[in-house]
Specification:
The complex is a heterodimer.
Chain A lengths: L18 H7 L1 H4 L4 H11 L6 H28 L5 H6 L3 H7 L24 H25 L3 H31 L15
Helix pairs in contact in A: 1-4, 3-4, 3-7, 4-8, 7-8
Chain B lengths: L37 H7 L22 H21 L4 H25 L31
Helix pairs in contact in B: 1-2, 2-3
Classes of the chains: A mainly alpha, B mainly alpha.
Chain lengths: 198, 147
């Protein structure tokens, strides 16, 4: 069961609309390393996790990622408010606008719509936690790249915040991997999947 | 121990005769201290200075204190501690801090809800009218409409 909280995790207050920035920030909404994929990955992986600390961590980080999805949407929504057709064309936002107007749609910056093909649920604790570590690094690099491209201080505050969360999540997934290895049967030398091979 | 010889180009190295499956290694965080004060934690995106690794060393200014950011800051520390406790369930210091923050969270929630409206639908217990729709939605922001 999920309950909505009518607040963002971190404030989003973009003073200057700028559809040119929305064009690439949308990738953190529906791109290959974006927040939608992050939340779906963790919230789907948790069912085959063998230990309570892993079920807990994936539930809690997956839930936080839903909050980040909402923050990225808030950034996109505010960057695209009150646009004129001239601004849309000048910003190169026309290719998004023609399909979605100023709506928020989960797509990569390249225009490829969100796909579950950019995430995996292997059903194996070691493989899934390694995927999660990689996912956090890839999301961090995407925020690095956004910070390289954006000069809007209101946007960059939010991007820096979200980027730092990736670092914290990486640490927690690394710790979860350590806890898992400690718990695997000592004779389970090759880390055989404990939720499948009993 | 014997040298692990291989015909491939891969560089030579010593491995025990029967090495376990190679595994990524991340050191455990040892403690919740030192930690930032809650508004600074929210502004920086982590409670823990040891994990605070900003891009190009550029750091967010500490957020201005408003009823909303006060509550967001406490909520953030609660969330951050929950992730820590998921991998450190036996850390008493962390759990004590978590208890302290939960008490502060409850106070902050009540204060905010009274002044600005419900955060969850069920915060409307005892309210005169259906207030869920009258407070601003969190993604809506106009520079002139400061909360």
């Amino acid at each position: 069961m999920f309950v909505y909280e009518k607040k963002l995790q971190y404030p989003v207050k973009i003073k200057t609309p700028n559809p040119a920035l929305a064009k690439f920030i949308v990738s953190q909404y529906g791109g290959p390393d974006g927040e939608l994929g992050a939340s779906m990955r963790y919230l789907s992986q948790r069912y085959s996790m063998p230990y309570p600390e892993l079920k807990g961590l994936l539930t809690d980080i997956g839930t936080e990622e839903l909050g980040h999805l909402e923050m990225v949407a808030a950034v996109l929504h505010q960057l695209t408010r009150e646009m004129t057709p001239e601004e849309i064309k000048r910003a190169g936002f026309d290719t998004y606008f023609v399909d979605h107007t100023a709506g928020v749609y989960p797509t990569a910056a390249s225009g490829f719509p969100w796909t579950a093909a950019s995430m995996q649920v292997k059903g194996d604790v070691i493989a899934d936690l390694n995927e999660d570590l990689a996912a956090e690094q890839k999301a961090r690099v995407t925020y690095d790249n956004i910070l390289r491209l954006s000069d809007d201080p209101d946007v960059n505050n939010v991007m820096r915040y979200l980027r730092e969360r990736e670092i914290v999540h990486y640490q927690r997934f690394g710790e979860a991997l350590r806890r898992t290895l400690d718990k695997l049967n000592e004779r389970n030398f090759y880390a055989i999947n404990p939720s499948f091979d009993r | 121990m014997s040298r692990n010889k291989s015909d491939s180009n891969y560089r030579y190295g010593d491995l025990p005769a029967s090495a376990p499956l190679a595994m990524a290694y991340v050191p455990m965080q040892e403690s919740v201290s030192p930690s930032y004060e809650s508004m600074e934690a929210l502004s920086r995106g982590t409670l823990f200075p040891g994990l605070d690794l900003p891009f190009m060393n550029l750091v967010n200014d500490t957020l201005e204190s408003t009823p909303l950011t006060e509550m967001q800051a406490i909520d953030f520390v609660v969330d951050e501690l929950e992730l820590y406790l998921d991998t450190h369930a036996d850390d008493r210091e962390a759990f004590d801090l978590y208890q302290t923050m939960l008490a502060l969270q409850q106070e902050a929630r009540e204060r905010f809800t009274k002044a600005c409206g419900p955060i969850q639908q069920t915060d409307q217990l005892g309210m005169k009218d259906y207030a869920w729709l009258s407070s601003p939605w969190p993604w809506d922001y106009q520079p002139r409409m400061e909360v």
